[in-house]
Give the backbone structure.
Amino acid sequence: MTINITMPALSPTMEEGTLAKWHVKEGDFISAGDIIADIETDKATMEVEAVDEGVLGKILVPEGSEGVKVNAVIAILLEEGESAKDIGEISDASEIREVPKPAADKKLAVKEAKPKTANEQTTSTTKTTQTPTLKTGERIFASPLARRIAKEANIDISLIKGSGPRGRIIKVDVEKVIKEGLPIKAKPIKSSIAVSSGMSNEAVKALYEIGTYEERKNDGMRTVVAERLTEAKQTIPHFYLTIECQLDNLLKARAEINASAPKNKDGKPEFKLSVNDFIVKAWALTLQKVPEGNATWAGDSILYHKVSDVAVAVAVPGGLFTPVVRAAESKTLRQISAEIKDYAIRAKSKKLAPHEYQGGSSAISNLGMFGIKQFAAVINPPHGTILAIGTGSERVYAKNGEIKTGTFMDVTLSCDHRAVDGALGALMLDAFKKMIENPVMMLA
Amino acid sequence: MSNQYDVIIIGSGPGGYIAAIRASQLGLKTAIIEREHMGGICLNWGCIPTKALLRSAEIYENMRHSADYGLKSEKIEADITQIVKRSRAVTAQMASGVAYLMKKNKIDVIWGEAAITARGEVTVSESKKPIEQPQNPVPKGVLPQGKYSAKNIIIATGARPRILPGIEPDGDKIWTYFEAMKPKSIPKSILVMGSGAIGIEFASFYRALGVKVTIIELMENILPIEDEEISKLAQKRFEKNSMKIFTKTKLVKVEKQKNSITAHIELANGQKEKITAEKLISAVGVICNTENLGLEKLGVQLEKGAIKINEYCQTNIEGIYAIGDVAGSPMLAHKAEHEAIIAVEKIAGKNPHPLDRRKIPGCTYCHPQIGSVGLTERAAKERGYKIKVGRFPFIGNGKAVALGEPDGLVKTIFDAKTGELLGAHMIGAEVTELIQGFVIAMNLETTEEELMHTIFPHPTLSETMKESVLDAYGKALNM
């Protein structure tokens, strides 16, 4: 019996992904553990390993296919002694993509995959539209026609308000949404429809002369960034607190630690801590010292986290990642430094695994290296806060009636006011400032 | 006794009496005014008595063909007096049923002709219209003529036959449906002017009784509102049964002789012909009963001869509603009933769903029957739909063949893009009882997929419906 290779779920929340690349071709022999394909999800490109061995009989989903549903059959593996003839007829790969059926169930002889014609569909149609359900498992009442029209327009039917009997969603409701857009709060599945500002894609393009711009299609990462940050700015009541921190003691401590780093064989120091590593550590400790601030808004409750999982924004071409330094309060500066370096390298080649960038309760965004004096960052849901780090610069200040100079940086804390109030945010910044200005306190 | 009502309904046809029952159910103090017969035209001179007549015709036809079924029968005769008597008895039973329903629901019945004399005021006086005989009994305990007031008035006065100049009914040789429903004898020949449902049903009835029937239709096809393909099939079938049918034909004039009429007609190609028949049935449509209701004085707007209403059956004047035939086409009893519910629920402050005119089925009880709902193929194309059309003939259906009714077709029209069932058109035995399957499907907004997943019982004529759906997607099995 042939074996179906299905689209893997690379994370618990993954619903679909892009089949970015096939590493094998039809007819190749595959052993368990072989890397057969690259799958691109929201944020990462993952390699898919073969679980079984056999000859790759047929690739059903070609390279570059977007929106491939989790568990859809992407290829068929032949076991020993089987040939391509053992593969059931697959008249349309997309049909199988939606509702995987064991290949052995197919009755007819193999044919080259070709465009579907009515005659080739089996009578018990395989593309039954699933009854949609809310995340809570509650059934959504919608007419089959409404479901189909919504599906074809890539509209999440759960976001539509029904006008039929007992709130059933009917055709006119979906057509209204297609024409007028979703009501506030609702968002379409695909950002191409409406993560834009409310103007249609066409309306935006119409403002600019063709040829004066280069149009780049949004990839998965861009789409997710757009969706999440739009969601954040529209749903999270942000407020911002800025404080100035003197860095002289920290810079001194950093220089001393780096100077005493042991050398490796090539004579290079084994580590070199950055100011940012200190910041991450200090912020992780702050979240412990002011535990009410280590909070996530969860609708009907607030989650107070026990550990400090601090996400660090890493810019990559075309977007950014926020890998999470887990339990950063318990890690040494060296560990934090090494972890962030590793994350940064892998983020640039999109090799981060979803579990590495999901979760966290707060984040650090540092634009100091670009000379930015001060800025306010957008909270990355579901975090409760994000700390924006400005550049360290030499400034004139007064102390005990004397004019002095020192190195300072401005940091701005963005808070989700639902979970973190102003005074609480201020307490957090105060604790943070004390540790930055007197790094020895990090040991306390 | 107070003369103050929440709702007064003028007319007790299928729209009016249903409105009264619903209003009573919702706790509204309700009265209904009728001038002639409980149940209106539908029950007394329309839908119901014609079905009784057609049933007689059907049984007669079956008996005449009994040998086909291995049954011998001799000396079969149609007794028109008894056929009409039975038909009248059916109407009497149904009309008394309506009177009973009024009583049961504590609805006052006011007898006489109504006019809205002021906002919220209805004056009932003696009807000036001659009563169509035989009249079914007036219910007991009706309220007398006089002034009545109501917060809301629903006009449900129906329609009557359209009279064309030159073929005014004379009660003798030129008939409307009234006379055609109660013939004293079976004429030898009949000319039917107009091939809508009414004309075709009478043509079918008289043809079955052995009358030489000629039909004249001005439009391109008989049953002009039906799907062209169905109309053409019907015409073929009728012609096979020795009806003579002229389409795209004008009636120039009618001459009356002592015992016949001669119609001068102009054919599509301009050729002129004369047709002589014993009787002429004028079935050229109906017109709304909007007169003498006081509408002009109140400023109630009309449109194309019908009272203009919005989606909740409200006229432009607050507190005045109109439903059924008087509120415009399609002039069908079931549309009136549905509007009745909408109007009353609106009055009661409920939140009724407006009528979706695309989902009103239509039935013609000729032989073979015709039933349809939704868009015709032509209408779907004109609206710019890319369509998938399925067809399934009765000859491929075991039950139809067993019944000896292999003539028929089920045609389904789907929107190729969404799978929406846009229309269904059927001709064949009992299709008037089958069509509601598609009506439900359309109302629930099923796509072809759900229809294909539905199990239809075997052996039934309804299997043709499923096959037609399958055929639209190239999957018909028994063909």
The radius of gyration of chain A is 27 Å. Chain A touches chain B through 21 residues (CB under 8 Å). Chain A has a mean pLDDT of 81.
